Amino acid sequence: MSEKKAKLTAKIIIEKYMSVVALILALILGGIIIFVCGYNPFEAYASIFEGAFIGKTAICQTLIQATPLIFAGLAYVVAKRVNLINLGIEGQLYMGALGASLVALMPVSLPTPVLIVSALISAMLFGGLYAGLVGAMKVKFGSNEVIATMMLNTIAQNFISYMVNYPLKEEGKTLAQTRLFDETAWLPKLVNGTQLTIGILAAAAVCIGVKLIFDRTRLGYESRCVGLSIPASETAGIKIGKVMIIAMLISGAISGLLGGTHVLGSDHRLIADFSSGYGFDGIAVAALAGDSPIAVILSGIIFGALRAGCMVLNRTTGIPTEFIDVIQACIILLVAAPLLVKDILRIGKRRGGRKA
Amino acid sequence: MYAVEMKNITKQYPLVLALDHVDFALKKGEIHSLLGENGAGKSTLMKVLYGICRPDEGTIIVNGKQVDLKKPKQAIDLGIGMVHQHFMLTPVMSVTENIVVGCEPVRGVIFDKASAQRQVQEMIDRYGFQIQADQKVKELSVGEQQKVEILKAIYRNAKILILDEPTAVLTPQEVEELFRILRELKKAGTSITIITHKLKETLEVADTVSVLRDGRMIQSDISTKGVTTEELAQMMVGREVELGICRKTQSVGKVRLNVKEITLREKEKTVLDKISFQLKEGEILGIAGIEGNGQTELIECLTGIRKADVSLIEKDGEKLEGAPGDFISRKVGHIPEDRMTRGLVLELSVRDNLILGYQKLFQKNGVMNRRRIREFTENLLKEYGIKAPNISVKCSSLSGGNQQKIVIARVFSEDPDVLIVAQPTRGVDIGAIEYIHERLLKLRDEGKAILLISADLDEVKNLSDRLMVMYDGRIVAEGLPEQFDDMHLGLLMTGAAGREGLQYE
To answer: Which end of chain A has fewer CB within 10 Å, C or N?
Structure first.
């Protein structure tokens, strides 16, 4: 009986820490792929670890990489809470970047805090309304949010491209970008001598804020109900459409913050096609975080570390940086396929059993 | 001589011991009722026999030979057939196709449809069923679909037949018909196990009874001769229970809910046809009827979930309309017919479910008052005897009875004036049924107006002070419950008692 109990607890622990298990398996799988490609996986991981965590620069690099990933992951988690799939984070972050840039480019001189706060609010508004539009379309016309958000991505990206090519283009230059923002509109640095800004703090704060909304407010309660059971929510008198639209607004606002902190914090200007697909990386971050807003911080940092590490990896061993995409894909596959992970573990156990 | 012997069967699910060293034996050519509450382990035991789940311990002997069942295919090859509670049929396919699927007669490599059709029609005729081999399954009634399931098992040469809650969805007439078929099969030498929690039916059709409780075999191989329903109920529940509480109202007061001519058309079909009634305080008005005759739509119209084409609902003389939230704040309580989809958010905690629908009352400026919620829900847990380890566990981990108690506790505790109660004891154990019935009667005695919609005839007859019968979207009869006998009700419910129906009083 006690043996059975032990087995049972083991099962529960595995289920609870599925993400961790999946991450470890993904890293092992990644190692095998590196090995097959003819490199030494231990050396590779050692080098990634060094590049991500050893020394001030490495840690800062990890956090710089983590910032947009945390925002993107959180945006995805918020929409997922009401069971909507927001594949439009990419488009919303472009709109958010535009919103922030318009404020930053204003020909008035404001003190830094006022300027930055209003630029970020504008970013949230742009991103939020862009996503809220999808929410409203879903509620009013029953359109599929997955398709609608995807389509709007292209529109947003091309719209920004147009803006920086024509109305907002830096005068007398050929590049598709705006002029450099005044330094008053730059996000303050967190650590001098690095690119790390207060963006990472904003990201963490928003995660905690969302966690509080989820746990403590009526909106959080109702969105959880809507996400888990529409008929039960309807019966309970919850205004499902309203809850869905609000969730999309918040999700879009967070995506907008991603774009806003990016232009104010690292590029200091709006450039066409600046995003490297952060919106879609958010799905991996959210998946690893098990859709929990606090875990998103950790998950974002893990992915950030892999990215930071991979840059060093490329310099020292010649393993291409695309390797990060391989690991990311492995994680998504394994997190999305919990049954597969269980099976992998079971095979291991069965082997052990037979030997004994 | 045994068809099946199961010895020492143990099955551990995460957190529950579903079967605890259970012995079970089925004699050749008998009808054996496997009796027990929901969650007692009846279905699990039969799933073990059918190869759907593997036991952790124990041996299974079929026709004298020990077997190791890994999948249903093996059980089928051994001549074991199972009719599931939820039918495994493809509605758009014909009766024949549904029956032969998986062991189709072939000519070469081509499906020999003609010969399949012939074989199936032969079987249908042999048992005197009123169905056609080439009919589409979606055109059949529930009772007829069940016959298709039984034929499917017989077609696969089942000599051992397992039926999981076969009477749950049938009318009294259809139950009679089913029992006739079962007796015929028995005569032909088939050994039959029926899983049920209905005592009357057990005594009517079975030769032998075995009672399971909490995964343990309480008593097996009881002859149905010389055992009473009370004795069986006591074995099932483990204590004395009062079956069929019946206490009529003492005083009926003023009209609380006045419903006029609810009419609803959907896809060119009249779903609700001018339904009018008055619900008074201090009474339970019952609506009997087979499911799918408009009850669901009526409930939805009466709770704001659906908007009828024509409808006037007055509560205390004032018009009642709007969204479900408006109905809830006008003190119209709703116990939904399907707690799994409408009643509860199963993946949420007991605490969150106990305030569902009333979350507005536990917040200030959008912030939930967590301490009040905790105190409130912990009290409800105690008051209603809801068996949950704590208020943080998910509702999905509770038994049906405890889930239903959660729905009832949260609605009753908010003191509604009018209650729309649908299928309050479906899939609920006897102990909880007794409790829920007691509570309903107590509320009625306190002067609440209660509308009770139930497919369980005994329940609706015992509890109601007034009874209406619904068929095809209309109220076809109304009267006092004692004026209807079961057979007569059965006829009314199937529309066989004439279009204009009957009026008593």
So the answer is: C
